Amino acid sequence: MDPASPHLFEPASQRPTRVRVDLDALSHNLRALRAHAGVPVMAVVKANAYGHGLVPVALHLQAQGVEHLGVAFLEEGVALRRAGVRVPILVMGGIFGPQAAQLIAEDLEITVSSLDKLRQVEAAAESLGRKATIHLKIDTGMERIGVHSYHAGPFIEAAVASKWCTVKGVYSHLACADDPVSPMTRQQLEKFLDACAHFTRLGAPMPIRHLANSGGVLHFPDTCLDMVRPGIALYGVLPDPASRATVELRPVMSLVSQVVYFKVVPAGNPVSYGATWAPGVDTRVVTVPMGYGDGFPRSLSSRGEVLVRGQRHRIVGRICMDQFMVDIGPLGTAYNEDAVALIGRQGDQAITCEDVALAAGTIPYEILVGLNTRIPREYIGG
Ligand SMILES: *Cc1c(COP(=O)(O)O)cnc(C)c1O
Q1: What is the pLDDT of residues 119-150, one digit of tens each?
Q2: Do 228 and 257 have their domain in common?
Q3: What is the pLDDT of the chain when averaged over all its residues?
Q4: Catalytic-labelled residue, pool 46, 117, 137, 191
């Protein structure tokens, strides 16, 4: 482990910056999404569970009875198995040939996205003497991985005939479901259902059909089919500013720190690197021990806001690697160790991940997954 890892220090001697994860909010969102979709949930926990902590989140979801988990890579699936996660796990990313044997040995379900990959997985399964559990990936409009829906017939036929593969699922991925009015989703659903019809034509049992990401669950009930794969909504965040909150979701993450320094900056004196901002009048400025070295976006320089003592205040000057400054105004009051919320609630004020993404000029996903492991995760509830 990294000798500077925050995990080697007692909480009291750590820098007070935390990602706080509300496990009760996570349970609530799982139940709410499942009830809304009316089908089992494959909870997507890739990318360190969208920054919330891969293993603790997966163990909590398992305890809450989640039906399935989805990860991007072999490595993430293996980490979950090592941590004692027993529920079915689908590795959704494209696999590399040499990974097939390990995926099977670790009891991970494999995304098969071409005839070639099917042959690789079969060969690995045969050499291990153990059947692989696979989900066939159909491309209906992402042009990412998967067999084009209009070429799915021979692919599905080969998979169904395979002695060494059990076809547990068939799936595709929606490109525009975060936009409730995009016509793309309906077209993708039609292409997907056309591809699934090959199972019927072949007289093969229909595997689990799954298509809906968070946007699909929120906006397009028809796409929920036999199972849904929400990621970001599970964490209580909407995929896009255009998204509709058709399910009552609770934010799971707050990002908190404390004031580490207080000063008066005289009018005209610039703050931080590049001297890009200076106050017009004498003002009070506090320093917060967090920066882009933690994955807090530098693009929030002089744009983002934080909560101190229940009030919104602007980040001023450039965000540094490990610290940034906040203007609390000429009459503002703050003391060292006052709580600072970068994402979260203080009194009746809240700053959401969506607010931060908008100010940073990016999407909420990138904010969540960008918060790196230098910040300790703290779990509450559950
Ligand atoms: C990431 C991912 C999801 C989850 O997407 P959200 O928009 O976070 O709900 C679902 N399916 C696949 C294949 C993914 O890669």
Answers
A1: 999 999 999 999 999 999 999 999 999 999 99
A2: no
A3: 96
A4: 46
